[in-house]
Design goal:
With 560 residues, this protein is mainly alpha-helical. It contains 17 helices and 2 strands. It binds heme-as.
Length: 560
């Protein structure tokens, strides 16, 4: 279908800008594995300090890329499936706020004034520009959401009794979760961190700030994940040559995410004494609940792929796995989505280990954790973003994709890289190897009194995986920018491979109605978070002055 020039430009910028910044994000990922493995023993490289690089890596890859992509992909799904364009003014405001916010935060990080990692936990302090930039990026993404509300309600009025297309349902659910969870982080940033970082107040309530962050932080991971789920349900079965085994299963999975994505944040804080046992137990149980939609997805998508394989002539119990279009370069999205799914089997299993209150004690704050999250956010999420970004860029710019062979190899190389890298991290984590630590200056430095030889093979393994991942990313950049800088060769348009459902299922009005789910969502959040909030107010320790990563003494000590 045709898309107006202004919307094509908005989406193209929202794809191009984060992929360009990703070059820095990937470079700092490589520096992480080099620094940790002890190949070098230094606190900074090319003028960028270890924690500064880690902050750039986390913020660019996990916050900037994912947020821009969610908005760009949201615009595209609304336009394609509802045949209506979002509100132009709101979409433009969204784009500009996100650009200005990203530039402010990037400037702060590159200047070394915001080495606070992507979680920006106090008492680590950043320059106010970092917090303001992050706030603008988030508020900008809200405007993207607001730009879809009018066309969506018009569509519903004009199509009474028709099911909302699955991709649109997923997009609206995802941004509803986002709207709710970001209110907490907006409060943390605007009311707590900003005045503290500007020196208006001297100290900060750390437990409250961290609780507000994780109210947002775990829902954030589902905000990353849901665009991939939309692709798995609404596109992958078609791409594989089959049909979706059950549309109702997909709708149910999405609505369960709406209820359970937010009230589980305390599972990141199991080791924090400020929370009572009951608060932790309840959120641990809900965490097992939020795995259910992923189990539903695993079975539904596996059944859809089995159907596709059998249609392609597969025989026997597992023969369908061999018949799928793994190497079809004209259908390269398959490679990105299947590699993500395979990684997610292991990312999901390790997440369930983390959710256990007792096992969490062994793995919390160890290298196990980045092992887990690289098989989730750098698995199904990152691969779906890469595949869909080049796909959409080509369609909307009218430029043929260059180096399609390379584009098809990228996800397999990435998959191999992540498997090796995450194995190294998780093995090290089980041996007590800490995360977020420049091991090369101490623990993996043979000349240091803190030397831990058992962490050398684990960090070396992670280094091998990290190098393979970097090669994969470089090939992707090569193909992406060769496409972006090539000449237009066809009429720009928008087109998604769209799945049909295998059998017409009974119409369940509950799966086409937001209200009951929103009510349950609010009640669950209240039950889970009122005790957590009360716990943070019971905390009677001192509030904290600001710190930097390079010094155990508070900054601006004279002021206090
Ligand atoms: Fe997690 C920490 C628990 C999912 C990301 N998680 C993190 C952090 C990140 C993250 C970034 O309970 C670190 C934050 C930090 O910096 O401190 N996580 C879970 C659980 C799930 C889970 C229970 N996480 C994710 C996703 C993420 C993500 C998704 C990003 C997108 N996570 C935790 C916990 C912690 C945590 C604790 C805190 C730990 C601590 O102490 O700090 C579940 O949602 C996972 C459910 C998933 C499944 C897998 C389903 C499998 C599918 C694939 C099927 C394959 C097919 C292919 C069909 C049950 C759908 C077949 C075809 C073939 C050919 C084979």
């Amino acid at each position: 279908m045709q898309v107006s020039k202004s919307f094509r430009n908005i989406i193209l910028i929202e794809l191009l800008m984060p992929v360009t910044l990703l070059i820095f994000g990937i470079y700092h990922g490589l520096m992480q594995v080099i620094d940790r493995s002890g190949v070098v023993h230094q606190t900074s490289t090319a003028g960028i300090d270890y924690y500064q690089g880690l902050t750039l890596h986390g913020v660019i890859n996990a916050v900037v890329l994912t947020t821009f992509f969610a908005v760009a992909f949201g615009h595209a799904t609304i336009i394609y499936y509802l045949k209506k364009e979002p509100n132009k003014l709101l979409a433009r405001i969204s784009l500009w706020l996100m650009i200005v916010g990203t530039l402010m935060a990037a400037g702060a990080m590159f200047s070394g004034e915001a080495s606070v990692l992507y979680t920006f936990y106090p008492p680590l302090k950043a320059t106010p520009f970092f917090y303001l930039g992050a706030a603008l990026l988030i508020v900008g993404s809200w405007f993207g959401f607001y730009s879809w509300l009018k066309p969506y309600s018009e569509w519903r009025r004009e199509n009474r009794g028709t099911k909302t297309p699955l991709a649109v349902l997923g997009t609206i659910i995802n941004f509803t979760i986002w709207q709710v969870c970001t209110i907490a982080v907006a409060y943390e940033v605007l009311v707590m961190l900003l005045p503290w970082s500007m020196g208006f107040v001297k100290t900060i309530n750390v437990p409250l700030a961290r609780m507000l962050f994780w109210f947002f932080g775990h829902a954030l991971v589902y905000f990353w994940l849901l665009p991939s789920y939309i692709m798995f349900y609404a596109m992958l079965p078609k791409i594989a040559g089959g049909k979706l085994y059950s549309g109702n299963a997909g709708r149910l999975a999405l609505f369960i995410f709406l209820i359970l994505s937010v009230p589980v944040g305390v599972h990141h804080q199991f080791s924090e004494p400020v929370f009572e046992k009951g608060t932790k137990l309840f959120q641990s149980i809900l965490t097992y609940g939020v795995a259910i939609p992923s189990f539903i997805t695993a079975f539904t998508i596996a059944a859809s792929l089995e159907y596709a394989g059998r249609k392609r002539g597969a025989k026997g119990l597992f023969g369908w796995m061999k018949k799928l279009p793994y190497w079809d370069k004209n259908n390269f999205l398959f490679a990105y989505l299947i590699c993500g799914l395979i990684l997610f089997i292991f990312g999901g299993a390790t997440g369930i280990v983390n959710a256990s209150y007792s096992l969490n004690n062994i793995v919390h704050n160890t290298a196990w954790m980045p092992g887990h999250f690289h098989m989730t956010v750098a698995g199904p999420v990152f691969l779906a973003i890469l595949g869909m970004s080049i796909y959409l860029y080509s369609k909307l710019s009218g430029k043929e994709i260059k180096h399609k062979n390379l584009v098809t190899i990228v996800p397999y190389l990435w998959l191999i890289g992540i498997f090796i890298f995450s194995t190294g991290l998780m093995w090290g984590g089980l041996l007590g190897e800490p995360r977020r630590t420049d091991l090369g200056v101490t623990y993996t430095h043979p000349g240091n009194s803190l030397y831990h030889p058992e962490w050398v093979p684990t960090t070396m393994l992670a280094l091998v995986g990290g190098i393979i991942m970097t090669v994969s990313a470089v090939l992707y950049f090569w193909a992406f920018f060769a496409t972006a800088f090539s000449k237009k060769s066809f009429e720009p348009h928008l087109d998604f491979p769209t799945t049909e459902v295998l059998h017409e299922e009974r119409e369940l009005s509950i799966l086409n109605n937001f209200k009951p789910w929103l009510v349950v969502m609010i009640i669950t959040i209240i039950i889970a978070y009122v005790p957590a909030l009360t716990d943070t107010f019971k905390y009677n320790g001192p509030d904290a002055p600001p710190y930097n990563t390079d010094n155990p003494v508070p900054v601006d000590l004279n002021k206090f």
